[in-house]
């Protein structure tokens, strides 16, 4: 028969573990893996219902819905684990606010591509912005920006035509973070909106 999986608020705020947050042998990762398996077996309607229960976006193809629910569950489990351990005070927060290709009405089949990759490095102790990174990205799937996208973002076709593609810009971001010793000397968390 078919297995039914239940993901609830109780499951998200479930049992605590004492292993190191960076140790993948920690039981929290087994819980996440088991839940991911359940999510993989859900129908599109079940996914949409569960996303609505958590007040998350319910539009998109089945794979997008699965990824959204998995990411939500993983984030909740890891945040709960960090709060319990009490030693998760990050040195920095990297705030990211991507701009992406878009069309008016946001059709569900439209593939969005990042066209601007901006980062703000916030020191969590001083609450001061210590540095920024900003680079435009050349879209490859839908290389021509819609008039709606240009109007909404202020990013022109000429700007993205001259930009590097996403893999190169991502490498530039990684190098920028490496130079600031994020993940080695300093702890950090990524914060995004969207």
Question: How would you explain this protein's 3D organization?
Answer:
The protein has two domains: 27-80, Transcription Termination Factor Rho, Rna-binding Domain, Chain A, Domain 1 (Orthogonal Bundle); 92-192, Ribonuclease H-like superfamily/Ribonuclease H (Nucleotidyltransferase, domain 5, 2-Layer Sandwich). The chain is 40% helix and 18% strand. It contains seven helices and six strands; from the N terminus they run ααααββββααβαβ. It has helices spanning 9-12, 27-40, 44-53, 62-85, 147-153, 157-161, 166-179, and strands spanning 92-96, 99-100, 114-123, 129-138, 164-165, 188-192. Strands 1, 2, 3, 4, 5 and 6 form a six-stranded mixed β-sheet that branches. β3 (114-123) and β4 (129-138) form a beta hairpin. α3 (44-53) packs parallel to α4 (62-85). The chain is flat, with a radius of gyration of 19 Å. The two termini are 38 Å apart.
Primary descriptors:
single chain; 194 residues; alpha/beta; Transcription Termination Factor Rho, Rna-binding Domain, Chain A, Domain 1; Nucleotidyltransferase, domain 5; 2 domains; six-stranded mixed sheet; 6 strands; 40% helix; 3'-5'-RNA exonuclease activity
């Amino acid at each position: 028969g078919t297995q039914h999986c239940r993901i609830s608020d109780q499951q998200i705020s479930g049992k605590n573990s004492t292993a190191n947050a960076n140790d993948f042998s920690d039981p929290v990762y087994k819980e996440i893996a088991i839940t991911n398996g359940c999510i993989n077996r859900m129908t599109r309607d079940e996914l949409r219902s569960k996303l609505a229960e958590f007040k998350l976006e319910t539009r998109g193809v089945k794979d997008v819905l699965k990824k959204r629910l998995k990411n939500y569950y993983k984030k909740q489990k890891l945040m709960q684990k960090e709060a319990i351990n009490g030693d998760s005070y990050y040195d920095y927060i990297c705030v990211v606010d991507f701009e992406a290709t878009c069309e008016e009405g946001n059709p569900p089949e439209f593939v969005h591509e990042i066209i601007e990759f901006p980062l703000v490095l916030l020191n969590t102790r001083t609450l001061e912005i210590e540095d920024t990174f900003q680079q435009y990205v050349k879209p490859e799937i839908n290389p021509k920006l819609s008039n709606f996208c240009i109007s909404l973002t202020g990013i022109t076709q000429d700007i993205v035509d001259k930009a590097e593609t996403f893999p190169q810009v991502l490498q530039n971001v990684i190098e920028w973070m490496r130079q600031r010793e994020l993940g080695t000397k300093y702890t950090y968390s990524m914060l995004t909106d969207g």
